[in-house]
Amino acid sequence: MKNNQNTHVEVAIIGTGTAGMGAYREVRKHTDSIALIEGGQYGTTCARVGCMPSKLLIAPGELRHNTEKFADFGLQGKIPSVDGKAVMKRVKDERDRFVGFVNEDIDSFDEKHRIQAYASFVDDHTLSLSTGGTLTADKIIIATGSRPNIPGFFEQAKDRLITNDDVFYWDDLPKSIAVFGAGVIGLELGQALHRLGVHTHLFGVGDAVGPLSDPEVIATSLEIFKGEFPFHSNGQVKSIERNDKGVQITFKPTPDSEEVTETFDYLLAATGRKTNIDNIGIENTSLELDGRGVPIYNPMSMQCGNSHVFIAGDVNGDIPLLHEAADEGRLAGENASTFPQVFKKARKTSLGVVFSDPQIATVGMSFRALTKKLGCHFASGSVSFTGQGRSRVMLVNKGLLKVYGDKETGVLLGAEMIGPHNEHIAHLLAWVIQLRMTVSEVLQMPFYHPVIEEGLRSALRDLLFNLDMGAHPPLRCIDCGPGA
């Protein structure tokens, strides 16, 4: 599609990330009158600077870390040295391969639908294009994604201030780094860089750990991470300065400790992401906006108010995950195509994983949400992985799993956890929660022996007892298997 012409389409989609691509595929089923607008690079956040390249950095760090357990297994060996240039070459090569797959998808889209330009609202139906001209549309889907959020305080690091986007363009690993933010990005990259031999300090706020809200799981997580590398989960940063050696940071590791000053090669801001809603002229529309300037929308239809505008993916700031963005994009595309007929659809069970080691996962309703909604009308069950049989065999026996159930119905509601290979347990729980299974029904499902998932059964039995719906779990029960 020519960029400089004034034209009209039935549906305009702003953004070609995961949500935008999903929306396009749905809209394409209904009409050929489409504008797919992208001002930046093609390639999703996940593929270019998110979930895939981060795992490429985590994998060698985890492999190297596991060699530290050799002696405990009775094995003789040494911890491998790190070739930073080789590590980053593989990260970038594989990252580019993933991005290439995304670009191939974009290339397969009809060329006459694609516009390479930045778009900004002039009014509810009109978009101004950075390449000149305007475009009007009957329906518009906003899928402009997000970008790293950088607090102004960090700008004192000057040229040594980076974000996770920058990490995946490194040619070599630095000697040291200060990571700010103990969310998903900070935990994953901070631990991975530490395990690759980079002197790393992780700074958090208020003892927060990723997406966790259960105090017991948070406490277990803090103990695990602080036992491995410097993690100042509630420290106080006094100053940040750029000196001739890098970034000098003066801080108190805890509120009651003495001040410490250290210099790092870089300051990595992993302090969340902000939505790309502030640069598309959203204020020129009649849409009702929330306190963040994001249009108020229905998450079950992606419709903004009762309007012809839909919003999907990271730009809405709701759940910034690839699978959520894909679902939202498809839903927005379907409803934009059939507007003014709009249908609501039930969303999938919430599922999130932090690829730290041990892994953190949240499924269904969180402890915080349940406390707010149900108060004392839910119960919890737990299992520690410290004594769990298969976990001890593999020397990965760290962590705590909490599961939550409804006291009235016995339905399983949610879970928070940190533990070995919890990505798999989280998936199992997401499936049974979406099926609205009771705790008793889940316990009738098959469990093999010896597997880490037996720990889940122990937690469910504890929950059943606390719901007053089952007997107290027998100590080291025979049918669980030794050490289950």
Automatic annotation (TrEMBL):
Its EC number is 1.8.1.4. Its cofactor is FAD. The active site is at H449 (proton acceptor). Residues 352-458 form the Pyridine nucleotide-disulphide oxidoreductase dimerisation domain. Residues 10-329 form the FAD/NAD(P)-binding domain. Disulfide bonds join C46-C51. It comes from the Bacteria. Binds 1 FAD per subunit. FAD binds at K55, T144, G145, S146, D314. Keywords: FAD, Flavoprotein, NAD, Nucleotide-binding, Oxidoreductase. NAD(+) binds at G181, A182, G183, V184, I185, G186, L187, E188, G272. Belongs to the class-I pyridine nucleotide-disulfide oxidoreductase family. PANTHER family: MERCURIC REDUCTASE (PTHR43014), PYRIDINE NUCLEOTIDE-DISULFIDE OXIDOREDUCTASE RCLA-RELATED (PTHR43014:SF4). NCBIfam families: PRK06292.1-1. This is Dihydrolipoyl dehydrogenase. It comes from Colwellia hornerae.
